[in-house]
Predict the structure of AAA ATPase domain-containing protein.
Amino acid sequence: MTDPGRNRSAIDEMLDRAVRAINSGDRATADALAGRVLAFDHANVDAEELLAAPADHGELRRITILFADLVDSTALSTRIEPETYRTVVGHYRDEVIRLVNEYEGHIGNTKGDGLLAVFGHPIAHEDDVRRAVQSGLDITRAVARLSERVQRRFGFDIDVRVGIHRGLVYLDTAQDDVYGFAANLAARMCSIAEPGTVAVSEAVERLIRDTFHLERGAATKVKGVEAEVIPFRVVTEREISTPAIGPLVGRQREVLYLESALEMARAGTLHIPGVAFCGDPGIGKSRLARAVITMAERSDDVVLQVFGSPFHTDVGLHPIRKLLERRCGITRAATPHDRLVKLRSELESQHLNAENLVPWLAPVLGLGPEVGYDPAPAEGHKLHEHITAAVTEYLLACSTGRCGVIVAEDMHWFDPSTTDVVRALLSTKTGGILVVMTSRELDTLPGDRTESHVFQLDPLTDNETDILVSALHPDMPAAARDTVRRRCDGVPLYIEEVVAKLKAQPDDGGESTTVPDSLYEALFARLRSSEADIRVIQAAATIGSTFDHTLLAAVVEADHGQLDGALDALRDHAVLEQISGDSWRFRHELLREVAAELAPPSIRQRLHGQVADALIAAASQDWPLIANHFEQAHRFGDAVSAYRQASAVARQRGALDEARRYLDRALQQFDRLSPGPDRDELEMDLRLRHGFLVAAADGPGSAETAADFERCLQLCGTDPDADGLFATLMALFTYYVTRADFMRARQIVDSLRFGVDAGREWWRAENLGGAATVAWFAGDFAEALEKQEQADRLLVSRGQRDVDAEWFMPHDPIVLGLCSLGLARWTRGDTCGADEALARSESRATELKFPQGPFSLCYLRYPQIWIALESGCLDRAAELAADMTERAERYGFDQWRVLGMTFMSLSPALAALEAGRRDGPEISAAIGAVSAWVQACRFLGATVFVPSFDGHLARLHIAAGRPAEARVQIDAGLRLAEQTGMHFYDAELLRLRAATHDEPEARRGDLGAAFELARRQGAAVFAMRAALDAQQLSADTRLLQEAAGMFPTDSGCRELQRARTILAS
């Protein structure tokens, strides 16, 4: 069998040639090339689709279908002579064809006595539904007259039924035929019509109820349709005329406000910098925006425009990026270096410090530091704030010395970061800047009443509609004006489109699920009013509302002369607008939606794929858009890759939530990928990265993180040598430790040891550190220290390397190991060694980039604060807690922020106890904060370290004179220890429980148990505390002497110093 992998480049070349052939109409060449591809690769889906594609692309259209059938024709054929039958049926067919042609419908097949006609193809009109119904009525009347003649000549009657439906069909222009459910339903409507009548479907009734008198029929079951259908009998026509469209009228209040605001801005006295226009699509928001631009340009004011895009609602600062590209003169073909040069030049032309601003603005253009600038000295939320400030500074600089108008159109499609820029502009209040905003939704507009004036645009009144119609078509009759008011409901865009079509060429039409039926035909007529190649319209619509010439040329593969001619024709017919030399946009989004529906699904998919390929070939950095096109093209593997790239770029900008969303989108594609090892490996890689981002935001104990990692376990099987299994198990270890599931954590340590022994020697230190962590929380402090010291020696000797390929937790493994070493040393009484380990950990964390660096520092603060609290260094604990909270707030680490705030409440409370204040507000505040933390941890199952928090609560309750509450908390901690095997704090809890007893014997019992447990565990600090408390009860110093012998000689433990003082005296 031929190996397709060895011939991949040849296969790709043949497929590209086949696609070009089929797009140019050369079906024979396309079939031959696809056949050659299948000879190499028998399962090639692209080749199969090429062979299955219709010989002519055809179109998907919403058209009106009429089906006429002679009543009881079969029975009639058995009663009369064949020649007579042929004569009568021939006259009947002639009448139907004549009347269909009269209304410019089309009958493709005239065999038999059942005739199917379509209205809207090949000639389209803005009133094709009405034409079809009118022709149906005329057919019933003509056949009635024909029946009278047949009766007089042959002695029998004939009758006709007519059914009409409107819906989506595939038009096969080569075969002159239509396919789809809509054609079948038209025939079914005909079958239930009464003889001599026209029956229309509900889809048609909605469009003609104001044009014809109708009678509703009973719901009826018909063959091939699951639900009942409701026929409407067309009785007769109403007195009507056709509708129309127009410019800017009925907005005098808004225009006066804009004129006044511009005058104040020119004088530098504009106190309310923003004005917003809000309302439904087509209501006139963009018209007012264009009006203010005209006013501003007339006075040589500076105008800056940013546009929202429905394809980029999740892409940070996309409207700003497009503005920068336009102003910098950056084309799609520009190299990253050229982009950077042009950015610097633009900044310098605005008299800005390019060196200061480039690090903040280059990421907006998708440029990384590797292009040639120093990276921004901030990350996460702080980076976002600096970028927003830099963009704002640039926009303000563009209008320095002159009145500036900043137009933000379609803010309902703005991403949050761009909205923040507009919000920042509103807050500057320079007096010389007017910010004009448009949006469909009020809640997408930033600012308050002191910053912007909001106009909620209403439909035009009937009088205003008449004025608009007169401005567009002064000679329109009064009856036609009435129809405009009825059909357009005062929406300016609807009025404009209908009148323009009637005035120019009232013969084109269509429909869409996203465009109102009453408007669709006029919009479609606008699209087809020029001679432009339909492929150009389809490709432009696939790219989006705004597109550039270069990209469109790459997609349609037309020479520049042909393409320029098509674009000029579309511009002349008000389909497109030219924004700048290379940039174009659809005049209305509704026009683009209609155009996008024209291509059948197979062609639409191919177009989306061509757009994505062209974007990549042009070195576009718009990965979210590329991914969306691949997804629409059903090239799901390519979509996954593009979403992964989009996530990486967002993560580079510090936008972790955005990065996570793109990975969510990538993971949604996997159900559509073919099963196999490559697919599983890719999903595993993405889930590990997704789990990383979730852990960074929600903490390593997040259930969503666990779901990602457990799915990875399902995917990678049980091979201990598998890369995916090794990486997954390391990530799961942290998750299980966070949840105090030490049985599973220990199993993972043992499993990972097989991988280390099998060749991953570099990870032996982490494997030993994992075993040490489990031992420490189990209370086996001697073993924990031994393994952790051994891990540290390996850590020092092995050197550094990039661990991103195998480590998928947001905290760095080296920082993690050094934190564990610090805890192990401190518990054994080696305070100097603990400080040394934690200092090395901090040095390591500060070297790391976002998010590992900031996250690792927050993680480091946890053991630092824990040790500071246990050591009585309360000022130090408060300082560290404040740092943790600030970092977490800056970078969006919610778990660390809440924990930091908890420690910030606890530190002053313990300081108050040290000072002898036992009833201050700090005590009750700390009890509330720590209790909330403990309850949340228990509820979420993230219970590691929770017994120590139970101990802190017990201390506070004891100090507040509530020993019973303290015992409840202590017992809860001991139960948790018993359930999880987490015995690291048992000795302390027993010691604290002694203070809740009134009887000396009970106190001595708990203290003795605490000392004995701490001695067995090797916990020098906890043993000394129990010995000190016991000595206060009995003045016996033997336990003090034994505890003192557990410490290193250079220990700085304050409990050891107290014991030495007592022993010396």
About this structure: The two ends are 93 Å apart (CA to CA).
